[in-house]
Specification:
Elements lengths: L4 H4 L12 H4 L4 H8 L5 E4 L6 H10 L4 E6 L5 H8 L11 E6 L6 H5 L2 H6 L2 E7 L3 H4 L2 H4 L3 E4 L5 H19 L2 E4 L3 H8 L4 H14 L6 E4 L1 H8 L11 H15 L3 H13 L3 H16 L6 H15 L5 H13 L5 H14 L59 H14 L4
Parallel strand pairs: 1-4, 1-5, 2-3, 3-4, 6-7
Helix pairs in contact: 10-11, 10-12, 12-13, 14-15, 14-16, 15-18, 16-17, 16-18, 17-18
């Protein structure tokens, strides 16, 4: 089986790497550490295809330590024990450099088994993860390591790697490549900051292009068939998933319809309509709420229509609903009110239900004041009468305050007039 182009072209030095200038540029922190020759335990955190494994290999090639590379998805405790058994032997006289890829898949016991040797310096750990290390890595291991975050590579930074890949493929295939204007730029955008993916696109584009007169012509149209479903990074169970959902909801809350539509498009392109619908319903009730209560059935109807239509037509009612939520007036008065009430209940701050609100039932002979004494509001002017509804213990509790939007202020003025007081 042929080795992927990304491996055949893997950089052999820091200067050949693209992106991560905040870590690897001149006089940057991580580069200074590497060049010092004193290597601490490191954790590389960031999306796939951003150079974590490449940098670990470059570091390993410059050290005199025995290198072991294991992957958390397949390695076992036995693999760790086998590595530890080499310590203080002729096989690893200067200790071991362990590159542990996808450390988040190691359970707590497996991570703990490394602690003693990391602390003593017998094993220098370089671990990589695509998940937030502060959630997935055992705290004792984390405290003994320095975390460096790798970021998605910008399209501008990916371009040199793509150019280099096309030059390499031209020589390897022994054919001239005619590359249409815009192809390189399209790949740099379509890879979503993943250099490995950009090189895969280059290789596929070259292999898929027909040969005529020892020439392969690569066009934007032919490239589209390779990249149309790979325009961005999306891991339904990783940080990126929750980042997109967070940005989607915050854009609607922040009344930015353009941003909200962008993140909706990303969710729908990834096939995650359920998450898009759930957050949309949450925003309609939590962020718009009583400022425009009619929005709730409207948004619910749009979501139901989307589910019945399926993609791609589902994007239309969902887009309408997102725009409506984003551009509607906002109020969290109802949200804050129920949260305050829930907090009282959770803290046991409640009492016996007032007699006048209880379901009608028999008064015992020991009750000196028989009767329920409930006042039916509809028997009184304006369908309201003063009586106590909260238990005695919290009879003065106030959870809801009218919002400053037109809708709630109209209700406020109405009830102030009826009740004859500020409410």
């Amino acid at each position: 089986m042929s080795t992927p182009l990304a491996d055949r072209l893997r950089p052999q030095s820091i200067d050949e790497m693209v992106g991560q200038k905040h870590l690897l540029g001149p006089n940057s922190p991580l580069r200074n550490i590497i060049e010092s020759g004193q290597l601490p335990n490191l954790i590389f955190y960031g999306p796939s295809g951003t150079g974590k494994t490449t940098l670990a290999r470059i570091i390993a090639s410059s050290t005199k330590r025995k290198l072991h590379h294991i992957n958390g998805t397949s390695a076992s405790t036995a693999d760790i024990k086998s590595i530890i058994s080499e310590l203080d032997t002729f096989v690893a006289p200067n200790g071991i450099l362990l590159y542990l890829d996808e450390i988040q898949y190691f359970n707590k016991k497996q991570q703990q088994s490394l602690l003693e040797y990391i602390e003593s310096g017998q094993i220098t750990l370089i671990a990589s993860t695509t998940e937030n290390p502060y959630f997935y890595i055992y705290s004792a291991v984390l405290s003994r390591c320095t975390v460096f975050e790798f970021k998605s590579v910008t399209p501008e930074d990916v371009v040199p790697a793509i150019d280099r890949a096309f030059d390499f493929m031209e020589k390897e295939l022994s054919t001239k490549l005619e590359i249409e204007d815009g192809v390189v730029e399209n790949i740099s955008i379509a890879c979503g900051g993943d250099v490995r993916k950009s090189l895969n696109f280059v290789e596929l584009a070259c292999l898929a292009a027909p040969t005529a007169d020892n020439m392969r012509r690569i066009t934007r149209e032919s490239l589209l068939t390779l990249t149309q479903k790979n325009t961005f990074r999306y891991d339904k169970f990783g940080d990126e998933h929750y980042d997109i959902l967070s940005a989607y909801q915050k854009s609607m809350r922040g009344s930015d319809p353009d941003a909200a539509l962008h993140y909706l498009a990303r969710l729908l392109e990834a096939g995650d309509m359920p998450s898009a619908i759930r957050r949309l319903l949450v925003c309609a009730t939590e962020d718009v709420g009583l400022a425009y209560p009619q929005i709730i059935p409207v948004v619910k109807a749009c979501c139901d229509i989307a589910l019945q239509l399926g993609m791609p037509e589902a994007s239309i009612p969902l887009g309408d609903a997102v725009i409506l939520v984003a551009t509607s007036p906002k109020s969290v008065s109802g949200n804050f009110a129920i949260k305050a009430a829930m907090e009282d209940v959770k803290n046991g701050n409640y009492g016996k239900i007032p007699r006048q609100l209880q379901n009608k039932h028999f008064d015992g002979e020991d009750n000196q004041n028989k009767g329920q004494f409930y006042k039916y509001p509809h028997d009184f002017p304006n369908h309201w009468v003063r009586q106590q509804y909260l238990p005695d213990q919290i009879k003065d509790a106030k959870y809801y305050s009218f919002g400053d939007n037109k809708n709630e202020q109209a209700f406020y003025e109405y009830w102030k007039k009826i009740k004859g007081e500020d409410i």
